[in-house]
Structures
1.
Amino acid sequence: MTEQQKVHPVSDDFAAKAWIDKEKYQALYQQSLDDPEGFWAEQAKRLDWIQAPTKIKHTSFDSHNVDIRWFEDGTLNASANCLDRHLATRGDQTAIIWEGDDPNESKHVSYRELHAQTCQLANALKELGIGKGDVVTLYMPMIPEAAVAMLACARIGAVHSVVFGGFSPDAVAQRVIGADSKLVITADESVRGGKQVPLKDNVDAALTRPGTEVCEKVLVVKRTGGEIEWKDGRDVWYHELVDKQSSDCQPEEMNAEDPLFILYTSGSTGAPKGLKHTTGGYLTYASLTHQYVFDYQDGEVYWCTADVGWVTGHSYIVYGPLANGATTLMFEGVPSYPSHGRMGEIVDKHNVAILYTAPTAIRALMAHGDNVMDSSKRDSLRVLGSVGEPINPEAWEWFYRVIGNSKCPIVDTWWQTETGGILISPLPGAMDLKPGSATLPFFGVMPALVDNEGNLLEGAAEGNLVILDSWPGQARSIWGNHERFIQTYFSTYQGMYFTGDGCRRDEDGYYWITGRVDDVLNVSGHRMGTAEIESSLVAHESVAEAAVVGFPHDIKGQGIYIYVTLADGYEPSDELKKELTQWVRKDIGPIASPDVIQWAPGLPKTRSGKIMRRILRKIAANECDGLGDTSTLADPSVVDELIENRASR
Ligand code: 6R9
């Protein structure tokens, strides 16, 4: 039997205690499709509304008029739902367990403390002139203040835009400008794997770029006490301003469709898009999926290893768990520091019941052999989760056997920044698991497969993954550019949301995501547009032209392979390769580090001048025998040249 055919049935014992078993899933899923209004009206009751919604669903995927509204006459406050409403019943319960990069550093923040800190920062934000509708950029380490900052924005109706702490000054500048952001919240430095990352220096550099003058203030958390520059009048120490504030701040009454946050993500073309997420639908969806997909039970410690800079951190470290009154663990460091056993050691130290991580992290550990987890027992684990990219069956089985001691179901959760929450995933008490498959849709989600012409495919089939109707967690627009939103997601296939992913559906109706079908790379679960990397490269004086493709990489899933045509007067050299590598890292961030650079005197192009990436991908993957039809190339001989000089790795 190949790994792909293996099935791990739901255990009766697990199903008996789970929120959702097979029958419940079938019944609720059917109901969610037959009567979406009734189903979601009921689910919305899990939140505390100021004005309960009476209008539930108003959505159109028609490409002439994409309009998505949920609970549109309801009002609420997201931070009140994550904090205030828990105070009476669980004020002293731990909301956030923080585990520092240094294994000797950790702390517990109770719901009462988190509430007080959030109110204090909310009052401080007001003092800085921030109010409803203003955009605040967060560029922060994985410390509780990151969650506090998100919740404080939500409390006063400001919109947060979190920028991943591994991104470059240019990325920060681009996002500050794109969202007209008046304030940046950062820290002096972050600490990861024993190394300092100069966040404040990066913000300083970002704010020298033209257009960033909109940003008036920088609020700085003292994390390490490292040396930083200080700009009087602009920079404000977090502790100096926040500690003196009142811990009482009335939450702002927000409409369900008021924006909660913007989050930038890469697409196949152009600059990263700022996806706009709103309040009522997003929070309902994040909270519901967190409870059911992870089968979260009251009192359990739940750990999502993502960074808050990604959507996974938004929905499944902060909003979902806190709306549910969960204890959520936040880890500052990396799984390999101080040793590769760290993840298991954290599980033991904090009694983690649910561990949600990424295939790239699993593969990296797996490369060190089964003994890598010997320093921990991991007996507390009950459910495992995977997100960010397809998990290969070998990594799935290793995760199950070595990390989960062969007793924890794995939920392979497929979703996107655009979807706000998990759309296709097992519910651990309801689905028999097939390693490598995200299995079946969540309540209210209608996935479908279409061929390249947009024809719906029935039964077992492979095609492009689309979603036929809206769900409450869906992004409503691209910040400041609704036309681009429509263009990107709703115009490829009429009346459908196009995910950009390819997918296979098997005879049991299980979905198997095969990866992106557009020019988006997925490197260690991080999305990057090939266009972004190419435009960075051609900005270097030595580069005449560049083409970027992904290739299979054992740990990262996909690696970055770059073909460079040099400008006149430049000669290939190892020094130049190093320089270009540094250039891209500095421009976009270390996650965009090229794995391979190949000099390409010419690139394969059609007669109309389009680069044939299909061919470049094959050469990068060393599949030079199956190049397919090259007869439409303007100059087929460039292909032979590229194969001959294929970079060795
Ligand atoms: C949550 C998140 C989205 C893209 C998505 C797909 C890939 C995510 C996956 C998966 C296979 C899974 N992806 N989860 N592919 N199986 N369980 O990752 O959001 O950063 O926007 O990336 O990631 O290709 O389209 P985001």
2.
Amino acid sequence: MSLVELNNVQAFYGGIEALKGINLEVKAGEIVTLIGSNGAGKSTTLKSICGQVQTKGEIWFDGQKITSLEPHVIAQSGIAHVPEGRRIFPRLTVKENLEMGAFSVKSKKLIKERIEKSFVYFPRLKERYHQTGGTMSGGEQQMLAIARGLMMNPKILLLDEPSMGLAPVLVDQIFEIIQELNSTGMTILLVEQNAYQALQIAHRGYVIQTGEIILQDDAKVLLTNNQVREAYLA
Ligand code: ATP
């Protein structure tokens, strides 16, 4: 079943058309990756789903049309967005950052349970529980950003360049965690410049170029596609 569907979606920043009518689908249980060069429209695609940019066309989530809903309504309906550059709260502790992630959850018990659950994937966050976010390493901050996204118990996780700026060993760790999350049922839309590793863990992929989807296929097929190899895997 399709969990997220974009039908002929255009996105605009003032007069600039950043997405030129794209079609994209993420089925429940999938990891789908969106790859492309700088400025191709990857982040804009995620922002369109989250209601953070002006769009035309239709965006569906879990059987409901979400086009032009307010961002906080979209978030509460089950879409977690982990934006590029992590954007955790640097002066707040790990605990406080995670609590902020559960902004609309009233039950303290439920919040505690979800924090405990996040330690299964991110044991490092347990060790750093009372440390302020800004003093942690880039990899730890990325883990915190993802864990915070999970605090609303979303149906889909939209990850924007989670490997950016991380040392190779941490990049591997982040990709492993993404795969682990998916194996326990989380649906993931992954935006990455690191096309090779993204396609290694994804089921399907889309290639975006100057606001248009130019290719879409099973990730394994894209890995062997000449155009992809030359432009994105070199
Ligand atoms: P990157 O990896 O560099 O972030 P991207 O594929 O995510 O690239 P987007 O950030 O989606 O690209 O940008 C798509 C296009 O929209 C680019 O031409 C960019 O300059 C433009 N754009 C993005 N944000 C804005 C903005 N706030 N105002 C005006 N133009 C913008």
